[in-house]
Design brief:
Number of helices: 2
Shape: globular
Largest sheet: 22 strands, antiparallel, barrel
CATH superfamily: TonB-dependent receptor, beta-barrel domain
Structural class: mainly beta
């Protein structure tokens, strides 16, 4: 499990797996709904040599390489190294994206039964485009002069930094004692940090079309050490086959974070005619402005033992598993401000605001069964519980978030149409989680406990290779997520942040989560005798409406997007060009203006534009 401050790099990913349903028994800190697992590139049996160059709008340029081969003649020692460099602007002025990274790995087959794989990774992102949002008036609804353009930047270039870095090391060891028993061990160390400075909007839109701004500086770092060791056994007793897993894991997370706010020393901005380079804050407590500084250090320790038994008898499969977790952490928070003495040269001494050392233990388990009919239908059922320490999540006032506990019930059907490559799935689920954390809209940077949250829904999907040249994937999901047990009183507000009264949170929808989503993607390689290997694809994305806050003050409308693309293998034009491939993708083909989400709080409503039409193409060459 990763706690990186930097978003993962897709150029380093070999495979992505969606594990639906319960997975916390084997993977620890995972919610009952499932997880998305990514496997990093590592040496394989087949040599690989690939380079690519990419281009796109907003000044995007990208280059990647991925090479791997044997080091020794016998092939018992292999290597692979991947790298990327990318730079681009964004649809918003003054926001840029820059990143470089490298992923080296070595695999040593010590003997026929033993192997060791070493994987390193380094990513440096000196710029990660991140806007501070827009007022609801001018984005969600027309403002004085219509709608704000997506290119409008309401921060300030003089205070516009978001640098991130991560480095990690991982080893994977495996030894097979015999055909019945094997040992697996994975160790991972990761260290990442982020440094961000920005001016952000605070308050409502004034009649003169200006909004006040505040400035912040956030520096954080976290280091994770994790070790997972397991024994895997394969048994067969008559017609019964069993795969047994027993293991233990350990995880230590050290996290630090310092945030400084300049609450009144930042110039306001006219949203229709911004003037830049007006922000020059001094984040020290010697500043004549009001400065609030908050910092904390946290050490979390978690260990667990787990077991799982997968039993197969004829067409019936039964899965049973359990896990015992122990965890504790220490958290020390420090806060300081100069509110009383700002401008007078007197500094309030920092003081320890809170110190916590809670601990907990929990047993969680899961059970499931499937039955494979001979005509391709597979019904299944599962039930699971989960336990997740919510590291780094604090409520206003310093109280650490309680562990997230949950339980899930799911039933479903999978149908592999006989004699085809068409898979249809349907699932219905009910997930209940306690101490679900939401953004505290009244206190930016903090979370609030939403109490007990229940998610109920259905998911339908289709994966079909209709012919060898036509591939289709489609899905529909309905998800209703509400706060079903809560003592919280939440504030009902309009888009400007005006207080319209308080209401109970219980029964309200969780903010930002759509009830309906639809996706479809079709890829078609045109007749080769005419188009010589040219392929085209088309996609549709529909995202339903969401609420801006947990008071359900107002809605963010739904939106529908179209994507198209094409690809061509030049080998079809000439054998001499084997390995050369071109791709082109256009997302949001119609350049639809849409809002992805909004938030509501005493600092005013904030909304975020979705991505405009994006064009990306690349040439890759493999040999």
């Amino acid at each position: 499990m990763s706690r990186s401050s930097v978003a993962g790099e897709t150029a380093f990913v070999e495979r992505v797996e969606t594990l639906m349903g319960p997975a916390s028994v084997l993977y620890g800190q995972v919610g009952p709904g499932g997880l998305i697992a990514t496997q990093l590139k590592q040496p394989g049996e087949t040599p690989i040599r690939n380079v690519s160059v990419g281009f796109g709008n907003w000044g995007r340029y990208e280059a990647t390489f991925d090479v791997g081969d044997k080091i020794t003649k016998s092939g018992n020692l292999k290597y692979r190294i991947a790298g990327i460099g990318v730079t681009q602007g964004s649809q918003t002025d003054y926001l840029h994206y820059k990143r470089v990274g490298v992923l080296p790995s070595i695999k040593w087959d010590i003997d026929e039964k033993t192997s060791l794989t070493l994987i390193g990774q380094y990513l440096y992102a000196p710029a990660e485009a991140q806007g501070s949002g827009y007022p609801g008036v001018g984005t969600l609804v027309p403002g004085k002069y219509g709608y704000l353009p997506r290119s409008r930047f309401l921060g300030d270039p003089s205070l516009n930094e978001n640098g991130q870095r991560t480095a990690s090391f991982e080893y994977q060891f495996q030894h097979k004692f015999n055909k019945f028993l094997e040992f697996q061990q994975t160790f991972r160390y990761e260290d990442s940090s982020t440094n961000m400075k920005q001016a952000y909007l605070f308050g409502s839109l004034h009649e003169d079309q200006t909004i006040n701004r505040r400035a912040m500086h956030q520096a954080s770092s976290n280091a994770t050490v994790a070790l997972d060791s397991r024994l895997v056994g394969h048994l067969k007793t008559g017609a019964v086959q069993q795969t047994l897993v027993a293991g233990m894991d350990f995880r230590r997370v050290h996290l630090t974070q310092d945030i400084a706010y300049d609450t009144n020393g930042t110039a306001s901005v006219n949203i229709w005619d911004p003037v830049y380079y007006q922000v020059y804050p001094d984040f020290s407590l010697n500043s004549p402005d009001n400065i609030e500084w908050d910092g904390f250090k946290e050490n979390q320790y978690q260990s667990g033992i787990y077991f799982q038994d997968q039993i197969k008898w004829k067409r019936l499969s039964i899965l049973l598993g359990g896990r015992q977790d122990w965890y504790n952490y220490t958290a020390v928070g420090t806060t300081a401000d100069n509110f009383e003495s700002a401008g007078h040269g007197v500094i309030t001494n920092p003081y320890v605001d809170y110190k916590q050392n809670p601990s907990a233990s929990k047993f969680t388990w899961r059970a499931g069964l499937t039955y494979n009919f001979d005509f391709g239908l597979t019904p299944y059922f599962s039930y699971s519980t989960s336990f997740i320490p919510q590291t780094g999540s604090f409520q206003y006032g310093g109280e650490a978030a309680k562990p997230l506990t949950g339980k899930q019930f799911e039933v479903g059907l999978k149908y592999l149409v006989p004699n085809t490559n068409i898979l249809l799935t349907a699932a219905a689920y009910d997930i209940k989680e306690n101490h679900y954390q939401i953004t505290d809209t009244e206190h930016p940077g903090y979370n609030a406990d939403a109490g007990t949250v229940t998610s109920k829904g259905v998911e339908l999907s289709a994966h079909a290779n209709v012919t060898k040249d036509i591939r289709l994937t489609a899905s529909y999901s309905f998800n209703e997520t509400r706060a079903t047990k809560s003592n919280n009183q939440v504030t009902l507000r309009d888009m400007d942040g005006t207080n319209l009264g308080t209401i109970s949170e219980q029964g309200k929808y969780i903010a930002g989560l759509p009830r309906n989503m639809v996706n479809m993607f079709v890829d078609y390689t045109l007749p080769r005798q005419i188009f010589h290997g040219l392929g085209v694809n088309f996609g549709i994305r529909y995202i339903g409406s969401t609420y801006a806050d947990n008071a359900n003050s107002y809605k963010v409308p739904d939106y529908l997007l179209f994507d198209v693309g094409a690809h061509y293998d030049f080998e079809n034009a000439s054998p001499m060009l084997k390995g050369l491939r071109a791709q082109l993708a256009i997302s949001n083909l119609a350049n639809t203006r849409y809002v992805t989400s909004c938030s509501s709080g005493m600092a005013g409503g904030r909304c975020y534009y979705g991505q405009a039409q994006r064009i990306y193409g690349n040439f890759s060459y493999s040999w």
